[in-house]
Amino acid sequence: MRPIQAPFPATRFRRLRRTPGLRAMVRQASLSPADFIWPLFVRDGKGERDAVPSMPGVERRSIDLIVEAAREAHGLGIPAVCLFPYTDAALKTEGCEEAWSDGNLSNTATRAIKDAVPDMTVMTDVALDPYNANGHDGIVRDGIIVNDESVEALVKMALAQARAGADILGPSDMMDGRIGAIRDALETGGHGDVAIMSYTAKYASAFYGPFRDAVGASGALKGDKKTYQMDPANSDEALRLVERDLREGADMVMVKPGMPYLDICRRVKDSFGVPTFAYQVSGEYAMLRGAFDHGWLDGETAMLEALLAFRRAGCDGILTYFAPEAARLLDA
Ligand SMILES: NCC(=O)CCC(=O)O
User: Fold this and answer.
1) Is the whole-model pTM more than 0.90?
2) How far apart are CA 295 and CA 234, in angstroms?
């Protein structure tokens, strides 16, 4: 649809930009704390928090402090948190068994949050990298990330997360066939109400660097993830993946990273009209935060502008490390 407009001076675009009231009346996209999912890094111990150097302002927290963070998020109107464990190197194995231990950090944190703040939606990450001795999202055999055996492990991991009480599972591994396998296992295992937000269009991106520091995977990773994550040059493939994941039983889809891939968000939303999310990843956070901290960008304005861009591009929500800060600004 192309709006009809009279020639200048009958049409003057500045008329509707003249006052805050007029601008508010014709504003299309909106941003609210309800649009945010806050990623949290979980560590062991009690009363422990440590900074992630490449993500100033972001911390790894022990489970008691994760619960506090979830309570804070709830108070700010943020509906969901997403948990990522910082696993002790001694627990990382080639078989990734810790991934489906009922008592691992992520599952223990899920239970603790659901006990203390039952209304907080808990999303968990389904991928083997935090538990894998070689840092990959799948099982490695003779240097190859093997697909089908990885899917079997991911199913076990997903079921353990469902047992812990996760509301949303986020398979971020990019193996083929995992959404269908997880959906089947959830249905037959009595967890038919657990939602899946598939990391559908996850690109092999340099913007994940600080995240790997945060979960302690940087040192462990051997090689790269290009045989399972998407080529940043591709766009049509993202649509094929969305269609596949929806047909396999995904309830929501995600594009990741966010800001460099807003074109993909828009194409996904326009093509499928399903709940679509973007992950503003660690490198995007680090880039913006670095500029804010140096005084090179006006932090408050640039943060909200960057987040609003996701909504304008068609996203229903955003996973963002800025969630509490942005929620406070929106509330002010
Ligand atoms: N599976 C979760 C991630 O890879 C997060 C990436 C990031 O924040 O850089």
Assistant:
1) yes
2) 35
